[in-house]
Design brief:
This protein is of the alpha/beta class. The chain has eight helices and nine strands. It is globular.
Length: 260
Amino acid sequence: MAKETKIDETQQRQATQYRFPYHYLPRLDDDGRGFSAGRFWDFSKSYVTALILVQKWFETHDLSSARHVDVGCGDGGLIHHLRRTVPGLKLVGIDYDRNAIEWARLFNPDVRFHATDITEPSSTGEITGQFESASLIEVLEHISPEKLNRFVGAVSELLVPGGRLVVTVPHRNKCVEKKHFQHFDFSSISKVLEGSFDVLELRGFEVHSRLEEAFQRRFQNNRIFVEIRSLNRRLLRAQLDRVSSDETRCGRILVSAVKR
């Protein structure tokens, strides 16, 4: 077994920078004559809103020290956030995409991850019935409709009796993206879960004002990106203030449920 390399204080400063692979941020144009200094993700505001709502969900349901499994964890973004904001959680991540799991392990080296399809027989035998809570954050829209019942049932099997579930999905108010099978409304997401869970609460979020939409179209797109930190705080606060039981204009749904 190779010995661990000792590094001095100066080298440690550089090692700290590698908590995120910043060399991948700049991107050269295809012709090699220009570049962009960063990368733009137009979903970021909605994603950060969901992170905060899920964090508050743990606090509301007294689950701050629960054994928690994030199903469809992808590159571990939610887990990375929860490690910092709800440090008492005992976290495990599951995703069928092995490449995503490798990223998750790099960013969260002290968390256990499983690269597996939970609908396959015996794929999660060692962790079946081990968790007080589970999350499905932007996952169910990626599951084909004919497999949804089996998938939700498999998630239920990971939980102890009475285990809690938090879900976010895109609402039907938004056009279905090419990478999604379907979007949902309050009624349809309840039907998806009802075979294994009792739905406790449904909330709509991601509600934008016309002014916000106009600003994003003009100043936050693939050609130009203007970021003002003070404005970010105001926009995030506005998103959180607009979370409600009204689904008329929302772009996403937050669901709280309990295992039957």
